[in-house]
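INFO batch 0412 | record 1 of 1 | parsing
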Amino acid sequence: MNLYFELLKTPIFKVEDVNKFYNNVDSARSAIKRLMKENMVVRIRNNMYTCISGETRQPITPTSYISHHTAMEYYGITNQVFYEVYVSSETSFREFEFDGYIYRYIESKGDEGVDKPAFSGGIRVTSPERTMIDSIKDMDKISGMEEVIQDISCMKNLQEKRLLSYLERIGNQFLYQKTGFLLSKQKEQLGLSDIFFNYIIIN
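INFO prediction complete | emitting tokens
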């Protein structure tokens, strides 16, 4: 058993979680200390730990990827500096603070539209098209109308097929309407055709 790879399956863990592999609390604590000494694990706060990626040197979960306005920041769409990192993952975790940033959990809606861009250091991020749809869908919970409109005004040349594919997978009529309304204001800049908007209207 490789403890590090087992712990990668859990975004946040405690001594009790590690003890499942040892059935001895002292051994579990010693194992955590060894991983911390090897810079493979960091302590977030008392009895709360997370793994560090050997590739990126950042806290990770195997199914995690950055999304929403954090992805907008990655693409250079927004000029605002945020100290919240939105992480979508199949494995839920409580939000936590690390290195001055608050990591907030968003339930993953699947891997469609999730890329691992070149030179990203192994970090997965939602594509510009999925980031746009996610931001519109969750604007009331995360970003707000003003921020989404600002982000749209800074984007260029979105791929229609990707937008439609993600909209179809969500299958929410109101989301079609919101997307059509918001994107229509910048349709030339975004490179979107009348066919695209006509399709949205009938759904």
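INFO post-check: The chain has a mean pLDDT of 87.
INFO record closed
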